[in-house]
Give the backbone structure.
Amino acid sequence: MKESKIGLVLEGGAMRGLFSVGVMDVLMEQGISFDGAIGVSAGAAFGCNYKSGQRGRAIRYNKRFAGDKRYCSISSLLKTGNLFNTEFCYDTIPNELDVFDYKAYQENPMEFWVVASDVHTGTAVYKKLKSCSKTDFEWMRASASMPLASKIVKVDGFELLDGGMTDSIPLKKFQELGYEKNIVILTQPKGFTKQKNGLQWLMRIALHKYPALVSAMAQRHIMYNKETEYVFEQEKRGNVLVLCPETALGIRRTEHNPEELQRVYDLGRAVALQNLPRIKSFME
């Protein structure tokens, strides 16, 4: 009888994602491995380090470049159309300044999936990244390309933006792919309820050429709240273990203070360490 696959599901949330990084670094320190992981937005951008086995890398480069205008700045947005500078984030850092271990990534049998949103259909698109090639990095960038702060990413015939717009917590998708047991890392506390986006009027103007995506964004809070409800229902059934902060993290989406980044990372580590017996029992 084939054993069920165990997965890791990573929510996004921009710099809230450093909470997830803290959790993941503890899991790596403990030698805990998964059959696959799926990340959305920051969960995609940071989660790839689990497959490459680079504990500490995500918090290291985020703190190092937090105040660097080449990394994330209004000047980058005005010059390039992207708040997070494409060339610096997805080329200069992984290839020169904090080198990504492509070899380790490719040799690790763990699958790594990302979620992006098709701007024409307003639906989620899922992609397995096998090598972290330049094209794979484009998919990762698409997953993390926040509307209003990023240009549409064109890759493999798709036009894409942030995956969180259409599938914020892709647990159901991973279950469909055969991952019957999953650890889900959320970046909002249990009981959090998402409200309707107050910038919806601006979305309608900026993305008027993509009515399906605008419609999806208008319903995003409903989708998100249904997904979190489903996650905790699955936890009650024993199919899922949820790791999330006890209270709101209180960090800005584009935080530039290294101490704040470290604080949120440390909160993630604390939750992971506190729940290690539960995690190890679940993984068995």
Notes: The two ends are 17 Å apart (CA to CA).
